Amino acid sequence: MRKEIDKKESDALAAEVRADFEKRRDARKSLEMQWRLNLNYFMGNQYCEIGQNGDIEDYGKQYFWQQREVYNHTATVLETRISKLSAIKVGMSVRPLTSDETDKSAAAFSTKILASVFNEINPQKLINEANMWSEVTGTALYKIVWDKDKGRRIGRIEEGDVYDGDVSVEVIPPFEIYPDSVTNMQVDDCRSLIHAKAYPTSLIRDKWGVEVAGEDICGFSVTGGSTIGGLGYSGFVQGMAEADLTDHAMVLERYEAPSGERPNGRLVIVAGNAVVFDGDLPYVNKEEGRRGFPFAKQVAIVCPGNFFGTSIVERMIPIQRAFNAVKNRKHEYLNRMTMGVLAVEDGSVDVENLEEDGLSPGKVLIVRQGGRMPQMLEIGSVPVELIREEERLLDEFTLISGVSDLMKYSQAPTTNSSGKAIALLMEQDESRLKMTATEIRSAIKEVAKQVLRLYKQFALASRMKRVSGDNGEIEMKYFDRNDLSSDDVVYDVSGDILETAASRRSTVIDLLNLGLLTDDDGKMNAANKTKVLEMLGFGNWESARELDVLNQNRAKEENERVRTERIDPEEVDDDEIHIAEHSKALLGKEYDYSPEAKERLLEHVRLHKRRKALLKSIDQGAGAQ
């Protein structure tokens, strides 16, 4: 009897989730039609519009001779913007909880783990994919989950191999996301959110272990398009159109925010008409150990009072339509000028023969006796207004999109060759992209935070990761959740978001010329030299600063060894670097509860200072002689 009640409750819950999904889909249908129109314009299918029946309709030629070509500046503008945005730096670092050296070390290790995870998930590919969706439709989302089938294999059972799991990040197009209200601007503002995606029934069976009935689901594919061309030729451009997915079932994941009734929130997964999961939100991915939605949103242009962003394509569609019309009318005029228009008296010539062959070279034209000779009508030249309107529309592309000729062609204007003037133009050229770039970096920062929090939640046993050492070498490190003491992610760089390598190097050289990186005696210490090489993009170029990094690593090891033993300086130690590293440890709080270790480290520093002073006096004496 209990199973029957459970089944009725499950069926009722599945029906309620599906009804909720249909309601949300109807509420944002107009937005979805605009996204589909944007995709068609980006792909070149630009003779379409949103019809009265709420679908994308193509409008054909009115006359057989009509010029109907596409001059796709929309795709060029988007490709330029995406290429420029792909240069955004996504490096992150973890800020320590306190100034204690232990917290600093834990934060540094968390930064390495974060960098290792980002290298594994190939962030640049994900960002480029998200940029494509956000630039075309206005919105893209990242989904950050823990995949139990990833990671290192730790055993095998009857059902198959067992893995220790790992973080998985994927890009979600806006077509799959349904907030409870489109007026909620942020993901965390939503009380519930549905992720809807069509899966093959075989994949549902393998993933959730349930058999669901397959159905034909309406999706989108690159199958539609329209015919283009002109007088005497034709072509075809692809577009985005509806397509039926056979033997698929819709999987609805409804995430509900924590509430008084459900402090851990709720996740309901419905595959077809069956509930395959109903429980708490699975991930502790928010601040202060709270559970939330595993999504990070990225928009191209923020739309006030709307969950979804605005695409630059929406603003360029009227300009693109007008530009296509002007170019085609101009070519039609050129066709009339080159091919000519004949005026023929009725009955004077064989009109059918003239229509088929025209006035070909060497043609014998037979005219009825007493009839008038055919004559070419005077067409004149291309109207100047057509040429001017074409130029005005090109300028409007730049004005609307924020992508100028300097950005598209990487070519300085011929009217001004001043270096400062070109630099000012480049700065102004990129100012329109800074808002979009800020949204991208904010989304990646949220991804980084959720990645660390998932490791803090699921890395219960010791795990192994390949991380980059302090000297650039690859190390295999074991860690668990206790080694990730902080999840406060910050950007590891400051300054211009779209800063290039050339501008960064120019800034470093200016700082060197101003003497801001040298000591009072005009000399640069070893740490600054290493940092300057890194800022110039060389890192430890040909191991030029390898000894400095090795000395830093050795000094950090001595900071740990001094807790249990007395250490004397080695002859090959760099006293200045060792004194700096040991002093940072002493000024922290990690030795406050170990007076013996602190005294041993102080004695070690005194030995370094004595030897440094001795070597300095010997050098001065040799110089005096």
- The rough form would be described as flat
Radius of gyration: 34 Å
Structural class: alpha+beta
Average of pLDDT: 80
Helical region count?
17
**Beginning-to-end CA distance, first to last residue:** 105 Å
Instruction: Specify the helix fraction band.
Output: 40-55%
Sheet with the most strands, sense and barrel status: 6 strands, antiparallel
Write a structural description.
- Helix content is 44%, strand content 20%.
- It has 625 residues and is an alpha+beta fold.
- It has a domain of 35 residues.
- Helix 3 runs antiparallel to helix 5.
- The N and C termini lie far apart (105 Å).
- The N terminus is likely disordered.
Concise synopsis of the structure shown:
The protein has 625 residues and is of the alpha+beta class. It has 17 helices and 19 strands. The protein has helices at residues 2-27, 29-43, 73-85, 101-121, 123-137, 201-208, 312-339, 351-357, 384-401, 405-409, 419-431, 434-458, 501-514, 526-535, 546-561, 575-587, 595-624, and strands at 48-50, 56-58, 92-94, 139-147, 153-157, 160-163, 166-172, 177-179, 192-200, 215-230, 233-256, 266-271, 274-279, 295-299, 342-343, 375-376, 463-468, 474-479, 489-491.
Task: Set down the secondary structure blueprint.
Elements lengths: L1 H26 L1 H15 L4 E3 L5 E3 L14 H13 L6 E3 L6 H21 L1 H15 L1 E9 L5 E5 L2 E4 L2 E7 L4 E3 L12 E9 H8 L6 E16 L2 E24 L9 E6 L2 E6 L15 E5 L12 H28 L2 E2 L7 H7 L17 E2 L7 H18 L3 H5 L9 H13 L2 H25 L4 E6 L5 E6 L9 E3 L9 H14 L11 H10 L10 H16 L13 H13 L7 H30 L1
Antiparallel strand pairs: 1-2, 3-19, 4-7, 4-14, 5-6, 8-9, 9-11, 10-11, 11-12, 12-13, 15-16, 17-18
Helix pairs in contact: 3-5, 7-9, 15-16, 16-17
